[in-house]
Input
Amino acid sequence: MQKTGLFISFEGIDGSGKSTQARLLADHLTSQGYDVVLTREPGGSEGAEEIRALVLKGDPDRWSAETEILLFTAARRDHLERLIGPALAEDKIVICDRFADSTRLYQGLSRGHLRGIVDQLHNLMIGREPDLTFLIDMHPETSLQRALDRQGDEERFETFGADLQRRMRQGFLDLANEFAGRFRVIDGSHPIKDVAKAVSHVLSDELQRRNVSS
Output
C-alpha cells in the first residue's frame, strides 16, 4: 500500500469532548505505528498561538466579527504554512482540533452572518479543507456546563451562553450536510471510551479506503 498524508479535523460546540477525542485518536494511531501530528486552532504554530491569545481571552465584545475573521484567517495561514502543510508533505497524519468550519460558524454565522466573507478569505488565503472531519455532537446545555467547569482563561466564547451553543450545534449539523463527503457525525453523549471506539472504527474504514499504511 502506498503511504500518503491525511488531514483530519475535529469539530463541535464547546465542551463536546472533541479535544479529548482528537488526543485519544492521535494516541491510538501512534500506537499502531502511524506518524501523527496533533495540533489545534487557533494556534499550532508560534505566530498562530500569539493570535490565539488575542481572540480567546478578554471581553466577549473585544473584537468585531469582521476583525475576528481576519485574525483567524491569519492564524490559519501561518499554521498551514509552518506545520500542517509540511507535515502532510512528509506523509504524516495531521489531526487538528478545529479548522475552518469553526470560523464558518463562530464568526461567519453566529456573530454577523458573514459566511460569504469567511469563505472568500478561505478560498483566497487557505485553499485547503480537511480530508476527514469528525463532528462530536453533544446536547448544548451539557456541553456548555462542561466548558464552564474547566475554569480556564480561554472562555470568551463560552460566555456568549446557551443560546449560542444551541445555534452552533445546529450550524455544525448543517455543515455536516453541506460537506457530507468529509464529515462524520459521532454521538458525543456516550462514555469517552465508547466515543473513541466509534471514531477509530470510522477512521479504520477510511484508512483502508485510502490505502494509507503505517
